[in-house]
């Protein structure tokens, strides 16, 4: 297992929510961290708490952002940012709203993949996308969200294949938080909407989410992968719940075997 205190990490979408938990986990490990997000206030608040953190105010869907992301040859790049999914019935969505996460989450994953494979990024770089448990079972009030998060899983597989064929020595992973998480942007908006959609009280909806992980569980899983890459046999797609980490093949079988790392 590699220590992270000499490592450079970039967390895109690391100013709030799950990304911020990942940033704090990397900082606690002694890593040098660059955080990318658009809004200055949450970046400034992060720097007040962690003066050593470096920040870039930029949009992850701009190609130019990637020049700065890869400027210092990072060891780990985590794409934690994502757009707020729509929370309406499919009948109420126009195409613009339906495709929100395709034009942000998937576009940013695609640009990152293209950049890393074509420049290319230095051998030994880990590139990880945060996906969602919605990619497994769907999300009926989230428009194109679940499909976009599934696309991130495919992208990690395609990119790994391209890296292997080109002998680039890169590692592409997708990690899906299994359940919605409170105290995150997406969780705090979507949980009440799902409770209303299913006609239950919010606390009952939350209680019904078995194996619910926290954002800190997600951060621990990212740190574990940064310390030690999963083996090729384990694949490139993983799900994290409160029970630990499951592989894509376990996920597809529908009976995940959860392991602690
Ligand atoms: N939260 C959950 O319950 C949950 C469950 C499963 C999967 N996920 C996935 O986990 C990821 C994080 O979710 P979250 O709820 O923790 O997020 P969040 O709290 O809403 O935070 C989103 C972060 O991404 C940044 N961001 C958003 N759009 C960006 C853009 N275009 N360019 C640069 N930065 C951008 C935000 O900063 P700015 O707005 O300042 O740019 C912020 O730092 C998402 O991909 C989400 O789909 C979340």
Summarize the helix and strand pattern as letters: EHEHEHEHHEHHEHHHEEH
Beta content: 15-25%
Instruction: Say how many strands there are.
Output: 8
Stretches where pLDDT is under 50 for at least 5 consecutive residues are: none
Mean pLDDT: 95
Helix content: 40-55%
Going by helix content, strand content and strand pairing, the class is: alpha/beta
Name the CATH homologous superfamily: NAD(P)-binding Rossmann-like Domain
Largest beta-sheet details: 8 strands, mixed
Supply the CATH class.
Answer: Alpha Beta
DSSP helix count?
11
Number of domains: 1
Quote the CATH topology.
Answer: Rossmann fold
Notes on the structure:
By secondary structure, the chain is an alpha/beta fold. It contains eleven helices and eight strands. The chain has helices at residues 17-28, 40-49, 63-69, 95-98, 100-118, 134-137, 145-166, 185-198, 202-207, 215-227, 248-253, and strands at 8-12, 32-37, 54-57, 76-79, 126-130, 171-177, 237-241, 244-247. Helix 5 runs parallel beside helix 7. The N and C termini lie close together (11 Å). It binds NADP nicotinamide-adenine-dinucleotide phosphate.
Secondary structure: elements and pairs:
Elements: E1 8-12, H1 17-28, E2 32-37, H2 40-49, E3 54-57, H3 63-69, E4 76-79, H4 95-98, H5 100-118, E5 126-130, H6 134-137, H7 145-166, E6 171-177, H8 185-198, H9 202-207, H10 215-227, E7 237-241, E8 244-247, H11 248-253
Parallel strand pairs: 1-2, 1-4, 2-3, 4-5, 5-6, 6-7
Antiparallel strand pairs: 7-8
Helix pairs in contact: 1-10, 5-7
Bound molecules: NADP nicotinamide-adenine-dinucleotide phosphate.
